[in-house]
User: Fold this.
Amino acid sequence: MAVKKTTRKKDNTTSEAIGAGGFAGKEVADLIDPAEEEKYWEKEYPSRPYYQEGKTYQEYRPAYRYGVEAVNKHPDKRFVEIEGRLSRNWPKSRGESSLTWSKAKPAVQDAHERAIQLHEERLRVDKEAVNTGEVSVGKRVVTEQQKVDMPVEREEVVINRRRAGGGAHGGHIGAESEEIRIPVKEERVKVSKETVPVEEVTVGRRKVRDVKHVNETVRKEKVKVEEKGNPKVRNTTRARKS
Assistant:
């Protein structure tokens, strides 16, 4: 029969003794808080498939307690492993309940298998690609002043004078003057502009591997064992069988 299992967290309060052979305050992975179970089953018992119409909680209460005590006495055993022993001892443990073992067994198994589990928080770290920026590559025109020194040549007229020698000779002052023309040349700077490529730009992307350090606080539940008197306690860890 499928049994409903409930996962819940325990508080730090001290548990009360839960009958003969029970360990007060003993918190292990398969131990159920009896005070919490009393409240739970008193509310839930009418919804269980084995509930008989007209039966009160007092009829089922010993069965639920019996299942909790079985967990305390045999924390490393599954219900099927101790079912025979529980069946034989039920007449002594049922108190005023009128339920036979066949009627009480589903309730005992319910209480036994409603085991508490220890929890802890674990970090889940994942990665996602996000846009962190955008790069636009283009070109713009800037103006700058350039100065270039260009050597040029020009011609200058050089006039050399010297005294005339010899005697007088005929001639008239004031006659139509003679004119000598000498072409003079010079180099002038001719400026022109041309466009030439000076640089080439290629744009691409590359992946860079980095490590991000994650620092977060997590909580976990740990087993707490409290003992009163001189009980015999055996802690075992076993994997659940599916």
Notes: Residues 57-73 form the longest helix (17 residues). The two ends are 14 Å apart (CA to CA).
